[in-house]
């Protein structure tokens, strides 16, 4: 998975609790992305980062925040999880050609 | 923003037959069109991509065609094998200084039957 590690791989939490998902890369790529995958919707961009402390919103950013304090780590936080945020979350990095996206293995999040 | 539609949502073929998956996009400024394969429990894996200045690209049994005028592109898999069974996603983006923000189709579940 192109040197991408997502943690945790699975998480079950309760409505209203904060949740942080971590994406770690080993290859010093500039661009990192968070997508969510839901049946009937494909993958939708939540947030992305174009450098340390440089982030921007995607199409489904409401209820999510991100942080990137180091090149290798991109964190996705759900401040107060809701059932609608039950999903599979994928982190991606853009390769050296500044074109191709490579995805991690995903985090299955269930909000009860 | 960009909107990508993908058809069919499910596709069943016999081993050895060809499979075709079609996508349309809405933003004429899009110029990069990758295809991803996702196996159960794994992340999407890039299998082939095409830029807007190219009409067709092949890689062994896989090919992608692009019609910029009609704003549609297709994935062709020939001589299908059981290991081709997976979910396939098309995507589109306009490469800008802000990185590559892909818009995905909703996916096609391909089943190759023996």
Notable traits:
heterodimer, A: 112 residues, mainly beta, 7-stranded mixed beta sheet, 4-stranded antiparallel beta sheet, 11 strands, B: 114 residues, 6-stranded mixed beta sheet, 5-stranded antiparallel beta sheet, 0% helix
What does the model show?
Chain A is an all-beta fold and 112 residues long. Chain A is built from no helices and 11 strands. In chain A, the strands form 2 sheets. In chain A, strands 2, 4, 5, 6, 9, 10 and 11 form a 7-stranded mixed sheet that branches. In chain A, strands 1-3-8-7 form a 4-stranded antiparallel sheet, with no helix packed on it. Chain A is globular. Chain B has 114 residues and is an all-beta fold. Helix content of chain B is 0%, strand content 54%. Chain B contains no helices and 11 strands. In chain B, the strands form 2 sheets. In chain B, strands 2, 4, 5, 9, 10 and 11 form a 6-stranded mixed sheet that branches. The mean pLDDT of chain B is 93. Classes of the chains: A mainly beta (112), B mainly beta (114). Chains A and B meet through strand 5 and strand 10 of A and strand 4, strand 5 and strand 10 of B.
How would you briefly describe this protein structure?
The complex is a heterodimer of chains A (112) and B (114). Chain A is an all-beta fold and 112 residues long. Chain A has strands spanning 4-7, 10-13, 19-25, 32-38, 42-51, 54-57, 64-70, 73-78, 87-94, 101-103, 107-111.
Total strand segments of chain B:
11
Radius of gyration of chain B: 14 Å
Helix content range of the residues of chain B, please?
A: under 10%
Question: What structural class results from the helix and strand content of chain B?
Answer: mainly beta
Shape of chain A: globular
Largest sheet of chain A: 7 strands, mixed
Q: How many DSSP-defined strands of chain A?
A: 11
Task: State the helix count of chain A.
Answer: 0
- Overall geometric form of chain B: globular
Percent of residues in β-strands of chain B: over 45%
Percent helix among the residues of chain A?
Answer: under 10%
Mean pLDDT of chain B: 93
The H-and-E topology of chain B, N to C, reads as EEEEEEEEEEE
Query: Which stretches of chain B are poorly predicted, pLDDT < 50 over at least 5 residues?
Result: none
Q: What is the average of the pLDDT values of chain A?
A: 94
Rg for CA atoms of chain A: 13 Å
């Amino acid at each position: 998975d192109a040197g991408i590690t997502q943690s945790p791989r699975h998480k079950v939490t309760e409505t209203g609790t904060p949740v942080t998902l971590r994406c770690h890369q080993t290859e010093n790529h500039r661009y990192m992305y968070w997508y969510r995958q839901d049946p009937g919707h494909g993958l939708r961009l939540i947030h992305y980062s174009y450098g340390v402390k440089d982030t921007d919103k995607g199409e489904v950013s409401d209820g999510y925040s991100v942080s990137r304090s180091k090149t290798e780590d991109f964190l996705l936080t759900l401040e107060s999880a809701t059932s609608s945020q039950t999903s599979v979350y994928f982190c991606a990095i853009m390769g050296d050609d500044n074109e191709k996206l490579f995805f991690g293995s995903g985090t299955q999040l269930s909000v009860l | 923003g960009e909107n990508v539609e993908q058809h069919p949502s499910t596709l069943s073929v016999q081993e050895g037959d060809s499979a075709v998956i079609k996508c349309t996009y809405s933003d004429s400024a899009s110029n990069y069109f990758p295809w991803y394969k996702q196996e159960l429990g794994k992340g999407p894996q890039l299998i082939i991509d095409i830029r807007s200045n190219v009409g067709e690209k092949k890689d062994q049994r896989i090919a992608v065609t692009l019609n910029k005028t009609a704003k549609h592109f297709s994935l062709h898999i020939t001589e299908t094998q059981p290991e081709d069974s997976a979910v396939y996603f098309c995507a589109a983006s306009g490469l800008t200084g802000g990185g590559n923000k892909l818009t995905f189709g909703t996916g096609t579940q391909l089943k190759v039957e023996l």
